[in-house]
Amino acid sequence: MKNSLDRPKLPPSFREQLVEIEPSREGAVKYFPCDVVLKTGERVDCVYLISLTDYVKLWRFYPDRGRDKGFVDVEDIASVADSRSRLPAKFANILHACGESGMGYCIFTVEFRSGFKQAYLVGDFAVDFVRYPDGLGKEDVVNVSPHSGRDMAHISGHAYSACFPSETHRCLPVPRANRGETRSGNTAAASRNSRASQATFPQRASGRSEPGILRRGGAE
Fold first, then answer.
1. Is the pTM of this model over 0.90?
2. What is the number of other CB atoms lying within 10 angstroms of the CB of residue 70?
3. Where are the domains of the chain?
4. Buried-most residue among 97, 109, 162, 164 (CB within 10 A)?
């Protein structure tokens, strides 16, 4: 099972929950930033739920398994919800499209409704999850500025996990707010090639680098 697409699909109850979560996107791949509750009752915040089929097509290798390595199995999950620590999808999409700020990291600022700005330094993948200042949350975000904030005090991103069902998009309608916002294949490919050329992860047969999802959490 470890190196196979034969992994569980989302149960119907999960599909109903997931359709309420607007994914961020990188090319054709959708990233669902979730908080999940396991069947044991344990709550796990900041979990990326990503179609394994799409992931393997894009990166040409299979992610590992095991909670100790930062992965959650579909069959262990009781429910999913939109993550309280996520950036709204339209802002996360900007950061995904802009790629790395340097070798293996992204730095960006988030502007809030009050005018306050916070700089973040995270790993090159985990731009969806941020640590919000006290009293602020995702509903207060009004803008993001990629590659900015080097002269500001920054905070790191959240530690995160990932879950790879065999599919997500085939059984889910696209949320209305996200329709028509997918980047063109050429633009996505150019962005990914640029990121891969700078990445520090081991190279795979496809020439792409192993993505930051296998590096738990943001840069310290």
1. no
2. 20
3. 12-86+159-214, 89-156
4. 164
